[in-house]
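ZP: hey, is the nicotinamide-adenine-dinucleotide complex queued? I don't see it on the tracker
AM: it wasn't, my bad. submitting now with these inputs:
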Amino acid sequence: MTADTARWIRNFVDGQYVEPDENHSVRSFEKTDPATGLVVARVHEADEALVDRAVTGARSALGTWARTPVRERTAVLRRAADLIEERFEEFVAAEIADTGKPVTQARELDVARALANFRTFADVVAAAGQESFLTDLAGGRQALNYAVRKPLGVVAVIVPWNLPLLLLTWKVAPALACGNAVVVKPSEETPGTATLLAEVLRDAGLPAGAYNVVHGFGADSAGAYVTSHPGIDGVTFTGSSATGSHVMRTVAPRVRPVSFELGGKNAALVFGDADLDETLDGLTRSVFANTGQVCLCTERVYVHRSVFADVADGLAERARSLRLGRPLDEATTTGPLISQAHRDKVRGYFALAEQAGAKVLTGGGIPELGAELDGGSWIEPTLWTGLTNADRPVREEIFGPVAALIPFDTEDEAIALANDTDYGLAASVWTTDLRRGHRVAQAMDVGMAWVNTWFLRDLRSPFGGTGLSGIGREGGASSLHFYTEPTNVCVQL
Ligand code: NAD
């Protein structure tokens, strides 16, 4: 399909899809399928005036949505979940068109989590109470302090391309449940599901203007227009640490709150007493899930020297058994990288690892999958030994299906190696000694530490990172705190 015959992906502003100019003189860009490299759609890029319309529409929607009773707001969220369920396969198809990921993953993780996000945050907001304090005063009187929580206002939601629908609904569901209006800027790589979600939210009864989607890039495009708009009351952002830092500078003059879920360079720690089969299954997921393009993915595997050879051999064997292939083939386990540009970045780290003297246990190249797939951004699952924490491939986020295996001798050494990073998102600890599991997990300088599992989530628990990995937490009550502002009322009794 050529760009001219491809379908349009449109912006959704103030309750309506915006038709691109009929003579196509508007700014637009091509959306390619990462599995084939073929153009599948043309995306209407929002200009500054359209972003302004979105923010203005969002502000006027606040007048009704912020005042809508909680039980009605949460009913809209539950209807949205039901509608996504009814149109499940449409969302699966849109997720695949966006990312090229395997159909089984799109069904079991991405779209399933979108439903869970809407239902969980409807529950969380419906059950939320508020703190109050009785204050003893001199002379025996008391004061009652209680806080009422109000929506933050118009929230800019800026999201990346790796789990586009999952990460979008993770923010949109609590923001809307709390009575905010949102202006969403999906990644330029994955414009599809955010656009489809607009239909669902409209049909679920969300008032016009409460959910807007504007398409485009970062600098000099929709991302910058949204985050620099004076009508934005807060920014929730998931993406790279460098972009997060940039967004923080953009909002600094107006002192707006930010919630940042940024990059990671996550460690796994495998102790000599670990259950090796369970550990190898877990590591295979944590290194290679979504082709390594999950912020939580493991790129550093520290292994006790007594089991190093077994873990290295076992993980390499499992990496070789992953099935790269057509997204719609149910047997496919592993999709492409998101783009040729991202593949160039990942291959740059292959070259750096080689220069640093790494031994390639498996992978290290570009697979030949044949036919139309050869135009896609495919890469081989790759494992290295022979690197240290001083090497750039062990220090910098690669965001691909790749990990370095490094031996350790003592628990203290393992903890020090794992914490020797500027990031602080996630870690996983593999051991059958439960005391050690708790001890080491608690010693990790990260937002989330797992013991004998990975990416197991309870959406009510806090999620986020320290250091370069972010600012703040979302999930459960943490989301309510970000998406609302309290007004404390103090009454002398
Ligand atoms: P990115 O930072 O390049 O882009 C993220 C979003 O920001 C995109 O929508 C992009 O268009 C927009 N953007 C870029 N420049 C901007 C600017 N100047 N102003 C406003 N918006 C701008 O990230 P990416 O490549 O899309 O995603 C991969 C990164 O996301 C990785 O670093 C990964 O670790 C991180 N990530 C973190 C989490 C988490 O929960 N911590 C989850 C998923 C991904």
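AM: back. The pocket of nicotinamide-adenine-dinucleotide is lined by residues 158-162, 167, 185, 187-188, 217-219, 223-224, 227, 238-240, 243, 246-247, 261-264, 295, 397, 399, 425, 465, 469-470 (CB under 6 Å).
ZP: great, adding it to the tracker
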